[in-house]
Amino acid sequence: METDYVFPGRRVAAVSMILGPILLLTGTLLRSQFNFFFPDQLKAMSDHPALMTAAYTCFLAGNVLLWPAIIALATKIGRANPALAAWAGMSVLIGLFERTFHAGIDHAALGLAERRGAGFAESVVSESYQDLHLFSFLSFTIMFGWYVLAFATYRTKALGVVQSIGLATMGLLPLGVLKGTEIVSIIGTAGLCVALVPAGIGALPESPKPSRRTVLFTAIAVPVLGALAFASTLG
């Protein structure tokens, strides 16, 4: 039997709209006391490893959690303008992939700073900073994608004016490896909260209630996934 289901589901998208922006803002604020450029970020990791690990982990988690929200927005845009939805959705998703790639480099460099010292980590990062890779050619999507998405949500009335402007502020967020927090970083992540958190809260009551079978499956799946997550850290 066919339904109007859209992957990954309304409830998942709603949770994504709430948690993704909040985690991004949390990570941004946690590292705000340290200078923006990578030598200072690495020194901060040597001096405050727990705080910096939490900051970069929150930011990475928020970035990854955003993908269902973006798919939901693109789907809503697509009902009025499929071509614009494709350009907007794909641009932002590629930008999210790139930030995730950068986060891997961030965590490797921060690990070097913690274990070998900030000076050693800084020399490794500075020598390899301009190395070319696939995402070198797609960096523009990190910022440009949010402007396209903001225009698309405004043009199709998928979001209101204020929320669309909030999406656009994410284009101010600096890109690259080991970038700390500037005032535009706070504006961008706070703007994303304004854009998506109310939409996510509003969408939760509208989401279909899970069936008993779904609740039972989830109750079984959660501890299994927890065990798999632990096992994944061992190899």
UniProtKB/TrEMBL annotation:
Residues in the signal sequence: none
Keywords: Membrane, Transmembrane, Transmembrane helix
Superkingdom of the source species: Bacteria
Keyword Membrane: yes
TM region(s), chain numbering: 12-30, 50-73, 132-151, 158-177, 183-203, 215-234
Keyword Lyase (UniProt): no
Coiled-coil features, chain-numbered ranges: none
Protein name as catalogued: DUF4386 domain-containing protein
Source organism phylogeny: Bacteria, Bacillati, Actinomycetota, Actinomycetes, Pseudonocardiales
